[in-house]
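May I ask you for just one protein sequence along with its backbone structure tokens in two labelled lines?

_____
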Amino acid sequence: MKPWILGLTGGIGSGKSAVAQCFIDLGVHLVDADQAARWVVEPGRPALRQITEHFGEAILQADGQLDRAALRKLIFQDAEQRRWLEALLHPLINQEIIQYLAQATSPYAILVTPLLVETGQHALTQRVLVIDAPETLQIERTLMRDNTSLEQVQAILNAQATRQQRLQIADDVLVNDRDLIWLRSEVERLHTFYLTLNRGQP
């Protein structure tokens, strides 16, 4: 039987990676949309050529890799450029995701994506788990992790779906505001429940 797909999402700094790792430790096949986004812009792939033609050589590093920081700066300042880039990349990223999800052998597989709402990727899933956290905690975690400015974190938060939009599409919500031991036990509880589901439904 084909595994059903759980969409795992949450805003920046909500703790998606920590939750994802807990599921991986339990043997669940997992595809990360951010990684798929990296694969599609590797040197030699058509997307990188189109991005370079559009934005110029300045968005490349010396070794020919995409300079993500430079690109991020450009698109967060200009909504039109962001839309152009999204229109190019989203279909390609979705193809990669579908390919990797098809390789799953666990009873269900997980698609981790910060932009589940925004990219229409929730159409690939049968159920949605939202990782939620108070905004102050999201900002604090992101500043510690990314060595970035408060303005940039705020810009990313503003570009992402709101908590309300995410919670509207959630089947399950995990509020990640405690320690890792507690988080692991919550993920185990969800995992046990998910194993009882048929195509993501009770």
Q: What stands out?
A: The two ends are 17 Å apart (CA to CA). The chain has a mean pLDDT of 93.
